[in-house]
Amino acid sequence: MNTLTQNIQAINQSVQAAQEQANNQEAVKVVAVTKTVEADTMRQLFDLGIHRFGENRDQVLLAKQEALADINDQIEWHFIGRLQSRKVKSIINQIDYLHSLDRLSLAKEIQKRADQPVKCFLQVNVSGEASKAGFAPEEVVSAIEALAPYDKVQIVGLMTMAPYEASESDLHRYFADLKQLQETVSQLKLPYAPCQDLSMGMSRDYPIAIVEGATYVRIGTAFFQGLE
Ligand SMILES: *Cc1c(COP(=O)(O)O)cnc(C)c1O
To answer: Do the beta carbons of residue 196 and residue 186 sit within 8 Å?
Structure first.
């Protein structure tokens, strides 16, 4: 069995185990973050059953879509990186999910450029780290309310990145905090913000995120470790 296949199996097993612990009915969706690999590795992933890809740079995303044009309509594309307003136009109609809605000016630009409503996660800076993008937890409700005029922005959920050096108990707390915020927003029952999903958890912390209610995890390194 090759390394990629082994990595996929190991990830599937940990996702499964964490999901059972979480008592989560619906399957957690794994986004393979492919920002560090070339299109040929993505094609191998695709052939092994992975059809959800996450990228964080507009030009790279477009180049990979071109390289995978023959299977592109079977791929779900997730944009997970900081998106500059002037780049919105180039990718907004080429992606299925935006995980990084981190400011209202970005929503305004999406409104201008999107042909159809875009499924977005509102990015929340749960830890307050200065280097991280996103809304502070206490800003989330007013930010969601301020999105009302933008019918091209649909808030499917909240997203966060935990600090690199966080302890296990801090991780539990950050992810639980985001879950609580997600429930608060969904209870507002705003038609443009169903907010049922939680995009949280990366290679080093996804089992904890799933236990705390993640519905999407964004996994890069764990897929590709040990590959030449
Ligand atoms: C790179 C990246 C990931 C994946 O990180 P790994 O540690 O490689 O799993 C997830 N989310 C975002 C926003 C990223 O930039």
So the answer is: yes
User: Is 20 exposed, middle or buried (CB count within 10 Å of its CB: 0-12, 13-18, 19+)?
Assistant: exposed
Backbone Cα Rg of the chain? 17
Q: Give the distance (Å) from ligand 1 centre to CA of residue 149.
A: 31
Ligand 1 center to residue 218 CA distance, Å?
6
So what's the pLDDT on residue 70?
A: 98
Q: In terms of Cα–Cα distance, which of 55, 56, 35, 34 is closest to 45? A: 34
The pair of three-digit structure tokens given for residue 113, joined into one six-digit string: 């450029």
Which of the residues in the chain have pLDDT under 70?
none
- Residue 135: per-residue pLDDT: 97
Nearest-angstrom CA–CA distance, 222 and 96? 23
Residues within a 6 A CB radius of ligand 1: 33, 35, 56, 80-81, 161, 202-204, 218-222
Residue 214 CA, ligand 1 centroid: distance in Å = 15
